[in-house]
């Protein structure tokens, strides 16, 4: 398995949109679009990401296939990392490799991450990289139609 990060290309968005259609992945992520099938909202969201000079975004490839995305954006003046891996790539070490490669490239600290308390896979990836829980929030999740507890994790 080869994992590579590369700059976002417009054709990646079709794959990202397809990944977003997976109901199980939406439940795991929790904080997703109200209607994941709305391509207009998706295109607006990704247009904002791609055109924001403060956002660092990379496409994750595994053996030449688009496996997901990883990016950093500013949230309340603190950089925050987020990632989405298509479900068919889960459990293969791709997320771990992608986060390692991204953290080697993006060195600003502190760096935050937010993760639902029951997303054990993402929590483990982050903890093994040195992230520690520094806060908890509870927000409404469109994917789950419920309030979900979320950990705020920090890497110094």
TrEMBL record:
Segments forming domain N-acetyltransferase: 3-156
Pfam families named among the record's database cross-references: Acetyltransf_3 (PF13302)
InterPro entries, sorted: Acyl_CoA_acyltransferase, GNAT_dom
Stored PANTHER family: ACETYLTRANSFERASE-RELATED, N-ACETYLTRANSFERASE DOMAIN-CONTAINING PROTEIN
Protein name per Swiss-Prot or TrEMBL: GNAT family N-acetyltransferase
Organism from which the protein derives: Paeniglutamicibacter antarcticus
């Amino acid at each position: 398995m080869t994992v590579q990060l590369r700059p976002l290309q417009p054709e990646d968005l079709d794959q990202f949109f397809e990944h977003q259609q997976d109901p199980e992945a939406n439940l795991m992520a929790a904080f997703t679009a109200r209607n994941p099938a709305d391509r207009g909202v998706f295109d607006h969201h990704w247009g904002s990401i791609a055109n924001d000079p403060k956002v660092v975004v990379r496409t994750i490839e595994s053996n030449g296939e688009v496996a997901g995305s990883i990016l950093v954006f500013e949230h309340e003046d603190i950089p925050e990392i987020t990632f989405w891996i298509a479900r068919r790539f889960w459990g293969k070490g791709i997320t771990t490799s992608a986060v390692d490669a991204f953290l080697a490239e993006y060195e600003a600290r502190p760096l935050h991450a937010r993760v639902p308390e029951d997303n054990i896979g993402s929590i483990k990836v982050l903890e093994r990289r040195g992230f520690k829980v520094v806060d908890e929030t509870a927000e409404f999740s469109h994917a789950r139609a419920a309030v979900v507890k979320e950990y705020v994790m920090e890497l110094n």
